[in-house]
């Protein structure tokens, strides 16, 4: 009988929706003038006149913006709307204004925009250490990953759980520049990532409310309820990484004009602010989530990829690639002599095994305790060939399993 465990072992990641096309301006007949106007306004462009009800004249942000302008029709009812849109799109593509590129990205791939700002001390002429930009990018990615995890399940601490699909879901996200390490924008395509953007929006507000509640009452209870909104240890650590070393930080989610505002979300959504004074509460909440996330009873099916024990007999340690039963990639477990022998024989003939135990939160849900009931699982020939190929690619197994070295 074929085990269902192998059905989701490997998944093809969808190609990036704008890998090859976003650099080119979209065709005018595919652009909604109202969406273009909304994006220009969002990115700081100013409307400075024009014929009311027909078109508007837009200039870019900044002191040098008066020398450049776009004529954007208000709707397609204007007779020359396609011509004006075409000229505006070409001008945006040729513009050196950073916001012009962001407008084009928003047109090419309708996206919710997530923005991070950090208030950091500046050096001479507004300079900053080169590590500041790296810190901002790392913290932003941590935050996106925490939101992606929360779209898979609700937990105070994920560890290794759901990490592979959550990480893969970020492949669709585009990231803008981070000038001076003070500001960064992520474009989350609506068709593949709106759930992520909504979850982050809700989780950030819940985090802010939980911090304020702790400051007012001294109690951490609000963090328990915040889990349902997507708050977790991973998110609190991301906020700590964003705020640490700054005078404060803000995060805002701006919804794609072409898709509208998601149900239950504010429009416009105000930025959520955090300060260095929030860090002790965030660290305490993260420790609380780590401490209180319970172990999980599981029945895991997987292929043995590594075995080790200190002598020719007795218990040994086994590392297993998980095929089903838990949302983690690998687990380690200690097996008694008989179970260790069964696992070794199954591996040598190219069969996965099934085992019962408890997936422990300590260590990031990477260890199975109380392992028992180890049995081989029958699979079809194609899957068996794949497992045998995997075995041949991991020949160090033989050295470790047979040498008895620890």
From TrEMBL:
Listed Basic and acidic residues bias regions: 1-11, 21-31
Stretches the record annotates as Disordered: 1-31, 48-67
Record's protein name: Uncharacterized protein
Organism annotation: Streptomyces hokutonensis
Lineage of source species: Bacteria, Bacillati, Actinomycetota, Actinomycetes, Kitasatosporales
């Amino acid at each position: 009988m074929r085990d269902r465990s192998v059905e989701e072992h490997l998944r093809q990641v969808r190609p990036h929706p704008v890998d090859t096309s976003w650099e080119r301006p979209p065709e005018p007949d595919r652009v909604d003038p109202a969406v273009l106007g909304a994006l220009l306004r969002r990115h700081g462009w100013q409307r400075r006149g024009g014929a009311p009800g027909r078109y508007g004249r837009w200039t870019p942000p900044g002191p040098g913006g008066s020398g450049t302008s776009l004529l954007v029709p208000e709707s397609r009812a204007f007779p020359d709307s396609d011509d004006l849109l075409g000229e505006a799109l070409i001008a945006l593509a040729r513009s050196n204004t950073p916001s012009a590129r962001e407008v084009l990205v928003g047109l090419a791939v309708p996206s919710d925009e997530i923005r991070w700002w950090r208030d950091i001390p500046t050096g001479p002429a507004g300079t900053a250490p080169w590590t500041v930009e790296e810190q901002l990018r790392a913290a932003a990615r941590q935050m996106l990953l925490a939101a992606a995890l929360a779209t898979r399940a609700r937990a105070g601490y994920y560890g290794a759980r759901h990490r592979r699909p959550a990480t893969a879901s970020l492949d669709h996200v585009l990231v803008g520049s981070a000038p001076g390490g003070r500001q960064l924008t992520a474009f989350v395509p609506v068709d593949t990532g709106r759930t992520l953007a909504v979850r982050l929006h809700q989780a950030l507000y819940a985090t802010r409310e939980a911090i304020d509640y702790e400051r007012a009452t001294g109690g951490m209870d609000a963090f328990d309820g915040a889990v349902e909104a997507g708050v977790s240890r991973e998110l609190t650590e991301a906020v700590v990484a964003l705020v640490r070393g700054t005078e404060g930080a803000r995060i805002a989610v701006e919804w794609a004009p072409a898709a509208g505002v998601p149900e239950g979300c504010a429009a416009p959504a105000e930025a959520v602010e955090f300060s260095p004074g929030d860090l002790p509460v965030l660290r305490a909440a993260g420790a609380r989530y780590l401490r209180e996330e319970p172990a999980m009873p599981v029945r895991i099916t997987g292929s043995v990829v590594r075995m080790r024990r200190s002598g020719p007999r007795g218990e040994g340690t086994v590392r297993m690639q998980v095929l089903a039963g838990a949302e983690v990639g690998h687990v380690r477990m200690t097996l008694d002599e008989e179970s260790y022998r069964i696992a070794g024989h199954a591996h040598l003939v190219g069969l996965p095994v099934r085992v019962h135990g408890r997936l422990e939160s300590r260590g990031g849900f990477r260890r199975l305790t109380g392992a028992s009931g180890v049995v081989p699982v029958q699979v079809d020939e194609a899957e068996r060939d794949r497992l045998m190929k995997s075995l041949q690619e991991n020949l160090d197994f033989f050295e470790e399993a047979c040498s008895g070295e620890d």
